[in-house]
Amino acid sequence: MASRLIGLKPDLRHIKTGDWIALMLGALLTVWLAATLWQGGAADKAIIRSGGKIFREVPLSRDQTIEVPGPLGLSQIAIHNRQARIAADPSPRQYCVRQGWLKQAGEISICLPNQVSVELNGGSKRYDSLNY
Amino acid sequence: MTALTTSNLGEGGPRKGEADGFPTATPLPIRTWEKGEGLKPSSITLATTATDHHIARMAALALGLSVLEAAIPSPLPGVKPGLANIVTLIVLARYGWRAAAWVSLLRVLAGGLLMGNFLAPGFFLSLSGALCSLAVLAASRHLPQRWFGPVTHSIFAAFAHIAGQLLLVYFWLIPHTGLLYLVPIFVAAALLFGTVNGLIAAHYLDEPQAEPVQT
After folding, report:
1. Largest CA distance in chain A
2. Which burial class, exposed, middle or buried, applies to A71 when counting CB atoms under 10 A from its CB (0-12, 13-18, 19+)?
């Protein structure tokens, strides 16, 4: 049985005409889903939250550094070249800092210990009604 | 005390059981079953048909495959080959949708018990996937057999499976749109494994039927 499984060549006789159509439809669906769901879209503003509340919403068009207070101290958020990152943070493990630059809409960087987060937002927020 | 007892025994005096004035316990009636009289070990026999046996055997096979693939590491939780569905496809083609539904659902139930996640989220994910793919199979098996074979059924069932799981995940476990980023990966895996499983099922269906079952 094992040898038969290994010797199982992709036998194209088993694929009938309709199977090819199903295969093509499946491939099209996959490509379409990837194209739709993975195009993050250009981001044009950064939403900075502190303690769950929106601290500031800043446009990405202007380079700047923003300091956000949290329970552990100040988090520094840098905006540069239409990208945003958390440049410095007092959190012990520095996950959000190491995440690096956020480029596309929907990307988010969260410093949980300091309760600070930065989220990039596109002009057309497609799933607005689904957000909590 | 010791001397008295030994001397009593030597004279064939009262036996130990009768020392307190109680007669020796007579054998209890419960012992009679050992001799084949009276009570007998009861057995409950369910009337089973050959189909039941076959479904049970196929479900056990599917269960073995799902345990086997639980040992395969996966890059992303939820992406797995779904080898057990090969069995479902073969049963669907040979014995019809009802038998396939039995095999699939028995496999989910027994798999949950075996893996220890019965009634845990993982179990409900399996269940919703299985139910969705069974629903799709119920429709897709009416496609003309001239053109559509197990590969089509397998692909459709795989898509339905992942759709059912993702819907449950979204509405129950992770109601966050970040899930959408993973959807293309899951769908691509469903297409790949659906095709491969369909080909394997078609391969085995082409062989002469090993054990015909009387229904």
Report:
1. 67
2. exposed
User: Based on the structure, what is the number of domains in chain B?
Assistant: 2
Reported ipTM: 0.71
Output the DSSP codes for A23-44: HHHHHHHHHHHHHHHH---BEE
Residues of chain B with Cβ-Cβ distance to A8 below 8 Å are 199-200, 203
Domain check: are B26 and B105 in the same one? no
At B176-210, the pLDDT tens digits run 777 888 899 999 999 999 999 999 999 888 876 55
In angstroms, the separation between the Cα of residue A49 and the nearest Cα of chain B is: 17
Q: Considering only residues B15 and B104, tell me which one the structure prediction assigns the higher pLDDT.
A: B104
* Contact: A30, B187; criterion CB under 8 Å: yes
- Say which of B148, B191, B206 has its CB closest to residue A16: B148
Q: Are B202 and A14 inside 8 Å of each other by CB? A: yes
Query: Is residue B162, in this structure, part of any structural domain at all?
Result: yes
CATH value at residue A81: 2.60.320.10
- Using a CB–CB cut-off of 8 Å, the residues of B that contact A are 143-144, 146-152, 155-156, 159, 175-178, 180-181, 183-184, 187-188, 190-191, 194-195, 198-200, 202-203, 206
Q: Which two tokens stand for residue B13?
A: 């005096």
Please check whether residues B23 and B94 belong to one and the same domain.
Answer: no
Are residues A61 and A106 located together in one domain of the fold? yes
Instruction: Say how many domains are in chain A.
Output: 2
Q: Which residues of A touch B (CB under 8 A)?
A: 8, 10-11, 14-19, 21-23, 26-27, 29-30, 33-34, 37-38, 106, 127, 130-132
For the sheet with A43-50, list strands across it: A53-59, A43-50, A116-122, A108-111
Alpha helices in chain A (DSSP H): 2-6, 17-38, 95-98
| Interface contacts A/B by beta carbons within 8 Å | 84
Q: pTM of the entire structure? A: 0.67
Give the pLDDT band of residue B4 (cuts 50, 70, 90).
very low
Q: How confident is the model at residue A74 (pLDDT cuts 50, 70, 90)?
A: very high
- Residues of chain B in contact with residue A107, where contact means CB-CB under 8 angstroms, are none
Cα–Cα nearest to B150, from B80, B98, B211, B90: B90
Read off the CATH number of the domain in which B113 is found: 1.10.1760.20
